[in-house]
Amino acid sequence: MREAQFIRKNKDRWQQMKENPSQHPDETAEEFIQLVEDLGYSKTFYPSSGIIKYLNTEAAKRYLHIYANQRQRTSRVSRFFKYDLPLVIGKHHVLLLVSFVTFLVFITIGFFSAAKDQGFVRQILGDGYVNMTERNIERGAPFGVYASGNEFLSFVYLFLNNIGVALRGFAGGILLGIPTILMLVHNGIMVGAFEYLFYSKGLMQDSLLTIMIHGTIELGMVVVAGAAGLVLAKSWLFPGTSRRVDALKQGAKEGLIIALANLPMLMIAAFFEGFVTRHADMSVWLKLLIIGCSLAIMIGYFVVYPIMLKKR
């Protein structure tokens, strides 16, 4: 598009914004986003144009109105989790779906691979773990592994370990997303083989009801970590109209924001695994309540709420 055509196309809208600037915070933010987008376009295609200075000035006015003069009713941390994070997640819902489908596919592959090959479970989980689990099953405590050790130390260890997995999933995006995909593949196959071990012993239902007490959030966070890495990889591989380095910076920022969502969730998952899952003999209804609430939180915050927020 020629510069003159670009100006004619947007002139009336710019004039309207200048003469009648909105006083509503949300509308002001929308004007700011539009002006920044126009500014970025003009800098890319008309780098020596005088329209750049005009757009920069108008955008700066709205920036000051939003961030300098507006009273902040919530803290930055509260705003991050209430608005910034859900909006970024909503922007990348497609990649979140890709991560989820990939993870689910390899859980299925792991399960049926274990069914076809009797040695597959030991190959994936290790002889030591399988032997320990079989001994626990024989003595009537199939989930005894979760009852061992100190609750608090288990919580700390699990939290740090889960953070490591999540950060590796995000960081793998810089290497074209290959380590991120491998993380989803490895964890998916491991979960599938793990569930087949209990299925083969007639304990599939008990396994799901017990392990998903912490696993609902923990496995969901594996998917989120995968999405964070894919966001980073996508910005590097498919920069669109932006310069590759600028797209990478934006992708790294947004991927990191998504990765940060893992921290409080992984803390909750580690708390459940360290303090709650060990009580495998608790009521079925209590287990279902915990799992249901965890699932509602995951779907509500990472799927439904971002959609509602974008519409608002």
Automatic annotation (TrEMBL):
UniProt keywords, alphabetically: Membrane, Transmembrane, Transmembrane helix
Listed name of the protein: Stage II sporulation protein M
Coiled-coil positions: none
InterPro entries in the record: SpoIIM-like
TM annotation in the entry: 94-115, 178-199, 211-233, 254-272, 284-308
Keyword Cell cycle recorded: no
Lineage: Bacteria, Pseudomonadati, Bacteroidota, Chitinophagia, Chitinophagales
PANTHER family: SLR1478 PROTEIN
Xref: Pfam families: SpoIIM
